[in-house]
Amino acid sequence: MYDVPDQTGKYAVVTGANSGTGKETVRRLAGAGARVVMAVRTPSKGDQARAEILAQYPEAQLEVRRIDLADLGSVREFADGLIADGKAIDLLVNNAGVMAPPNRMTTSDGFELQFGSNFLGPFALTLRLLPLLLAAPAPRVSTMSSGAANFGRIRFDDLHWEQSYRSTTSYAQSKLADLMFAHQLAAIARERGWNLMSNAAHPGFTRTNLQSTGPSLGLDKTPLIVRLFENYNPLPSQGVEQGAEPLLFAATDPNAAAGAYYGPSKRFGMVGPTKLVKAPRRSLDEQTNARLWLAAERLTGVSLPSRVA
């Protein structure tokens, strides 16, 4: 089990904090002494997760706040609330995501759901919170990607899959976009002399509700293939305690690096202790990363704040 370094005095924001790797990340950060904002779409679920963590760590400093990453208005309201508080943010953990809804769905702003909530929402959130991040002594932004990024490509001619939707390839695009964003933010921080570390991680095959809630979106019940896979999964898999560790390493470890990518070390990168992993070639093209960044700015209407640009 990875031992999270002492986080006393650190202020962290974790998205998707009510379940899966997000909840485990909050639990381990809180256990190490951090004050954590649990950013969740459904506050009642966040409150339940908070109560469960407090039962283990009664002194934990946890606050539940609502954000819907599939709604840029909600992202703005969440960020504005933190900005109004004026407290510097040491850690932003972009963990939340949705996976492979069977039919094409859209966000409140008309984006394809996976591209919008997995990438554009976290992009807008990160840029809006940059002033608070850069006010911290050694801030980090750690973004959750996926092994699916290895199979992704950015369809600049059809980012929102309006021509032909495919659930798994759309998911792969969104997770590749997350990784490209992490790399580009690291490059921008380096160019501008910011003391900001941006990196990324993937959880391998970690058993969470992500594998069932996404494929069930818009349906009356969980598809049979999903239920069969849950009961008879032939692939190596692991629990959230192990699966959250690459993200925790990226967010807290003294040896983590800007622009680096971390994931499991065993059985084809699906399970095991954390190691530095090779990022897919498509995520390392600086011109394509910059092109995606500009597209995200145009789509979200959010760009680098003038006072930190």
Q: Can I get a quick summary?
A:
The protein is of the alpha/beta class and 309 residues long. It contains ten helices and eight strands. 42% of the residues lie in helices and 14% in strands.
How helical, in percent, are the residues?
40-55%
Give the overall silhouette.
Answer: globular
Mean pLDDT: 92
Order of helices and strands: EHEHEHEHEHEHHHHEEH
Distance from first to last alpha carbon: 39 Å
| Radius of gyration (Å) | 18 Å
What is the topology, as strand order, of the major beta sheet?
A: 3-2-1-4-5-6-7-8
**Share in β-strands:** 5-15%
Structural class assignment: alpha/beta
Q: What is the tally of beta strands? A: 8
Biggest sheet record = 8 strands, mixed
**In oligomeric terms, what are we looking at?**
single chain
Number of helices: 10
